[in-house]
Amino acid sequence: MIDRETFTELMSGVCAPVTVVTATAADGRPHGSTVSSLASLSLDPPLVSFALDRASALLAHLQPGDRVGVNILGAHQRELASTFARRHRGPGSKFDGVTWTVRAGLPHLPESAGWTAGRVERHVDGGDHVLLVVCLEEAESTSTAPLIYARRIFGTHAPLAVAS
Q1: Burial class (CB in 10 A: 0-12, 13-18, 19+), 47
Q2: CA-based diameter of the chain, in Å?
Q3: Does residue 93 contact residue 29 with C-beta atoms inside 8 Å?
Q4: Each residue's pLDDT tens digit, 91-146
Q5: What is the pTM of this model?
Q6: C-alpha dist (Å) from residue 113 to 19, 57, 74, 75, 149
Q7: Beta 30-35 vs 19-24: how paired, if at all?
């Protein structure tokens, strides 16, 4: 088995979409976290998956049957990615000072490159993370350049040169 450092270095070379996954608590408060593991899973039914650390405070609000929003960040939203990546401590929330709205009953970050909402279908054990499988109910995409993460830095997609 490879060690943690080798694994981390290997995976840092994999470009990942940057999203902010959101939920609304029973008391109406918004919750969210930066997630870079969003992946399409199935066309029929429309399923996506993403992983959350078992210690994530967001996980308590995303049990099977719960609604979830996924804001696919645009290249101009690096600051939001950093804000929602921090572990929150103390009064207030990660949403303090952030422009957001409610869409389909979920926290929505305007000007994102894309947005989707759905219901958590199930949790799958993933070691120190939990993989969430989500059935999508609504979605919107835009032409905004996406924010990606690779080699421990934020960037965006650029057309690739054609291999000869």
Answers
A1: middle
A2: 57
A3: yes
A4: 568 999 999 999 999 999 999 999 999 999 999 999 999 999 999 999 999 999 99
A5: 0.92
A6: 10, 25, 5, 8, 15
A7: antiparallel
